[in-house]
Amino acid sequence: MSEFPADRPRGGFLKWALWGAALIGVAAVVYIMAQSLTKPPEPPAAAKAPAGEIHSVAAKLEHPADGSPAPAYSFKDAAGKVVTVADFKGKVVVLNLWATWCAPCKNEMPTLARLQAAYAGKPLAVVAVSIDKAEALDGAKTFIAGLAPLTFYNDPDAKLPWALKPAAAGMPTTVIYGKDGLERGRISGEAAWADPDAKALLDKVLVEG
What's the first-to-final CA gap in the chain, in angstroms? Predict the structure, then answer.
C-alpha cells in the first residue's frame, strides 16, 4: 500500500479546486451577459442647451441618406388605443419624442402646439409621443392638456427611440415623415417649430407628398 509524504500536497485536490473556481467564473460571466440582454435600455439623455436658447429648425435639420420608413413599433393614444405612424399615412407627420423629465422637450413643446394650430385643416399631424413611465403619466397628460391642439400619445416601454433607424440620439428627437411614410428630415434637440423656416420646410414636404 502506497503512502503520501506528510509534507507533499495532493495534486488531485488542487486540480479540482482550480476547476471549481474556473466554473464559478464562467457561470458569473454567463449571468452578467444574460442580465444585459434582458434589461430594458435606459431612456436617451436629454439634449443639453444653454438656458433659454432654442435653435431654428434650419440650423439643426439632419437629412437622412435613405429616406427610412417609419418604424412599425406601436404606441398608445390618450384612450389607450394602439397607434403606429402608419395610421397617419397621407399626412405629413412631425413625430416628436419627449418626456416630462426633459427640460428642452418641455421648452419646445409650445412651438409644436403653435405649429399644429397653424396647419389646422391641412394634412399635417404633430404626433408628440411621451416616453414617460406609468408613474409620470398623469403629469405628462396634464402638461399636454395645456397645449391644445396637441393630443397625448405615450410609449410606456420607452422603446420607440430605439425603433427609429438610426436610433434617437437624445431627447427631444423630432422626425419628419412625408405623406408616403418615409423620413424627410430629423432634429436632435429642441427647435423653434413655429418659426418661418420650419413652416417653409413643412410646406415643401407637403407639396412633395
Answer: 94
